Amino acid sequence: MALNVGIIGATGYVGEELVRILCQHPEVTEIITASRDFAGSTLMRFFLTCGGMLSWRYWIWRGCRN
């Protein structure tokens, strides 16, 4: 079963560790990241070991709305 994963706050300590762990998971095929501070920049400098699995741009997360 292929899994696509989204991580909000991917440049924080927990987010970075989660990306690192998910990059090694055999069923994860795509990781999409969101970061308020790094929106629009690339992920290359943070996650060099994930290859083509990551969406290589940060997306803006505007939060949940009711």
From TrEMBL:
One of its GO terms (molecular function) is NAD binding. Residues 4-45 form the Semialdehyde dehydrogenase NAD-binding domain. It comes from the Bacteria. Pfam families: Semialdhyde_dh. This is Semialdehyde dehydrogenase NAD-binding domain-containing protein. It comes from Syntrophaceticus schinkii.
